[in-house]
Amino acid sequence: MKNKIFEKQMPNIPEKIDWCKKCVISTARPRITFNKNGVCFACENKDYKNNINWKSREEELKKLLDKHRSKGKSWDVIVPSSGGKDSCFVAHQLKYKYGMNPLLVTWSPLQYTNIGIKNFDNLNNAGFSNIRYSPNGKIHKQLARLCLEELGDAFHIFVLGQIFFPLNLAAELGIQLIFFGENGELEYGGNKELFNKSGVNMTTDEKFLNNYFKGSKIQDLINWGFANKSYMKKNDFSDADLKYYQPPSIQTLKDAGIENYYYYSYFKKWTPQENYYYAVENTGFEGKIDRSEGTYSKYASLDDKFDGFHYYMRYIKFGLGRCIDDAAHEIRDGHITRDEAIKLVQKYDGEFPKKYYRDFLDYLEINENQFNEIVESWRSSKIWKKSGNNWVLKYPLK
Ligand SMILES: [Zn+2]
Q: Residues 195-217: pLDDT tens digits?
């Protein structure tokens, strides 16, 4: 890893990597903590989840919804949605189980897959209004390339908009309730501070909003890009174009009467596979026939052609690919054993996403050599070692 000043997570990778005794997550995962018995925070939480009184959590949910309910007069809750199974579940429950009037808000993927656009339409046709925003395509791809080169993840630019566009829109439309799906920190292992929180208070957790996303503000990276990247031309960019990559200001939020955004997973026991079945039944959601590259699952993150590269780069940076997330969650849900998970990880984790490789290079306007050079610039020496001509994990899962 050479001269990467904006990525602030990799320096925290420990010198020696340990694997959770119960699942297949390692200590290289950003923000994760392990207890003294070598069990990760997500597995500890899984046991806790089984002891939650979900009935009283539902009462809490109803109280919150009653506070905002418009009785159909206007939209009363924003559900950020890609058309994926989780947002189908959240939106459908809020509308048909709890009588809310949700507005779905979509930040377009870098490039839709066929199944992604189909599921987007399916959800729309299941009885929901949607506002979909497509950012300025010319600068969006420059920013994706900048993020790949300087943060090791082109997909990062999508993630920013996926979180911040709905928050900005909520403030602009005066809709005070926002429901994201799962608390990823809890479900996949991460920041302990978010444990047992129903959401994020945006007016007090500014640190979270500004520092969370690989540790750097996007505006700082963009300014640096203007000075250092020949493919970025300042006069292509306007402040308006860049607005939705950033959180709304505290003042804007206060003026709109918005404090929190919520995680639906705080109120409902979160099981991805159950959400999938729910979405198939209620909103016409379709999984894929073939598995996603890098894992064995067929129903998660289907809408963007390029998200395989997000997981592939995470594998290069942290030794944690896409299969790890699926397998770890399924162990905790009791669907597979740790031994089965290890076999799956050994078979699929880190598989190169070749299906959309050409599209990815074309989108970023780089060639294969440039791509390989970028990949190698992110290969962590704490994670990898050379064996003959090949790179192998220094501390493989076993
Ligand atoms: Zn674990």
A: 668 888 877 765 555 556 677 78
